[in-house]
Write a structure and sequence with these properties.
Elements: H1 3-17, H2 21-28, E1 48-53, E2 57-62, E3 67-71, E4 76-77, H3 79-92, E5 98-103, E6 109-110, H4 112-118, H5 121-124, E7 127-133, H6 137-149, E8 156-159, H7 162-173
Parallel strand pairs: 3-5, 4-6, 5-7, 7-8
Antiparallel strand pairs: 1-2, 2-3
Helix pairs in contact: 1-2, 3-4
Length: 174
């Protein structure tokens, strides 16, 4: 186990012991690792078949066809950062729009220009539909408000549960 994974497992254990279920689940949600109750014991969790990183995000193309974005905790996403996200996604998406899972639980803020960009036709070349996973019900309300402010050209939904977000996206891949 690498040092980063040890820290996440420690965080998961502490979160579980202290009754912080959200911290526990977030810490265990490593790329390519199933979440509790998500898969049958015999099923394989999705694995990253390609990945890229920049200062703000890690991007994974998973073997189930989903494109997954994980921001650096506390990141401020500007228009320039959104352009980096698009470039990284295009590098590994194989030239086609894919269902996109954006894990925003720990992001600091997304500025107006970045939100407008993610609602644009240019981003549509990368994402056929997007599930935004936020950290709390309050964040979900705020996320839905911002999604409503920017008319989006593709299906987009805000979730607090990554398992439900993935299930919704898989409805587009079958």
């Amino acid at each position: 186990i690498e040092d980063g994974q040890k820290a996440l497992l420690w965080q998961a254990t502490c979160g579980s012991l202290l009754g912080n279920q959200a911290a526990h689940e977030r810490a265990l949600a490593l790329p390519g690792r199933p979440r509790m109750g998500q898969y049958s014991p015999m099923a394989q969790a999705p694995r990253a078949v390609a990945s890229r990183k920049c200062d703000l995000f890690s991007v994974y193309l998973r073997d189930d066809g989903l494109l997954e974005y994980r921001p650096v905790p506390g990141a401020l996403l500007t228009h320039a950062g959104a352009m980096q996200v698009l470039a990284l996604g295009k590098e590994i998406a194989g030239g086609r729009a894919r269902p996109t899972l954006v894990r925003m639980e720990d992001i600091g803020r997304v500025d107006r220009e970045a939100r407008e960009f993610f609602a644009s036709e240019e981003y549509l070349a990368l994402s056929s539909q997007t599930a935004l996973v936020v950290g709390s019900p309050v964040s979900c309300v705020i996320g839905n408000f911002f999604v409503g402010l920017n008319p989006i050209l593709y299906p987009c939904k805000v979730f607090t549960d990554p398992v439900k977000a993935e299930a919704w996206l898989r409805g587009f891949t079958t």
